[in-house]
């Protein structure tokens, strides 16, 4: 016999699963986990947020959509003069940060107190225009391994 009570929407509920020796009931408390997986946020950073990071955000969003994975992508620039400069809130909210060059990782760690393990260096030099087919190919190749880490 199983008898349950409580509100699974709150902390959980109790289930009585049967009788134990001496006619004593035993039970366990069952906790329900939120079945909706939290949407992961990915931050893409280049120097000025003009070419590489916006292209990378678009490529990653496309890879995720093709796999039926919901993600939040944001792009920013490491320079204070960038179209959208990185700020503390954006860096903190990101689950994973992709930077184009090694010095950008150093700057994020130093200026925004980001844990180095949260930053991935893609190694893509500043020689491409926005949505350049060669840039898109490099980004797809570099980002594809991270699609399985949702």
* Tally of helical runs: 4
Order of helices and strands: EEEEHEHEHEH
Distance from first to last alpha carbon: 39 Å
What share of residues is helical? 25-40%
Structural class of the helix and strand makeup?
alpha/beta
CATH architecture classification name of the largest domain: 3-Layer(aba) Sandwich
User: How many distinct domains?
Assistant: 2
Can you characterise this structure?
The protein has 150 residues and is of the alpha/beta class. The protein has 2 domains: 35 residues; 110 residues, Rossmann fold (3-Layer(aba) Sandwich), CATH 3.40.50.2300. 29% of the residues lie in helices and 28% in strands. The chain contains 4 helices and 7 strands; from the N terminus they run E-E-E-E-H-E-H-E-H-E-H. Strands 5-4-6-7 form a 4-stranded parallel sheet, sandwiched between helices. Strands 1-2-3 form a 3-stranded antiparallel sheet, with no helix packed on it. Strand 2 and strand 3 form a beta hairpin. Helix 1 crosses helix 4. The chain is globular and about 35 Å long.
Summarize this structure as a short list of keywords or feature phrases.
150 residues; single chain; 2 domains; globular; four-stranded parallel β-sheet; alpha/beta; 4 helices; Rossmann fold; three-stranded antiparallel β-sheet; 29% helix
Topology:
Blueprint (H helix, E strand, L loop, with lengths): L2 E5 L4 E9 L3 E7 L9 E7 L5 H15 L4 E7 L10 H6 L2 E4 L2 H11 L6 E3 L11 H11 L7
Parallel strand pairs: 4-5, 4-6, 6-7
Antiparallel strand pairs: 1-2, 2-3
Summarize the structure.
Helices cover 29% and strands 28% of the residues.
């Amino acid at each position: 016999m199983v008898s349950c009570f409580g509100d699974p929407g709150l902390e959980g509920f109790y289930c009585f699963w049967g009788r134990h020796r001496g006619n004593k009931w035993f039970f366990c408390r069952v906790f329900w986990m939120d079945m909706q997986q939290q949407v992961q946020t990915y931050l893409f950073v280049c120097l000025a947020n003009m070419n590489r990071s916006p292209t990378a955000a678009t490529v990653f969003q496309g890879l995720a959509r093709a796999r039926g994975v919901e993600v939040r992508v944001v792009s920013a620039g490491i320079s204070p003069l960038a179209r959208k400069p990185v700020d503390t809130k954006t860096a903190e909210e990101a689950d994973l940060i992709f930077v184009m060059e090694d010095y950008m990782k150093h700057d994020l760690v130093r200026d925004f107190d980001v844990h180095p393990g949260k930053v991935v260096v893609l190694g893509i030099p500043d020689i491409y225009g926005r949505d350049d087919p060669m840039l898109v190919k490099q980004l797809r190749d570099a980002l594809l391994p991270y699609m399985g880490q949702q």
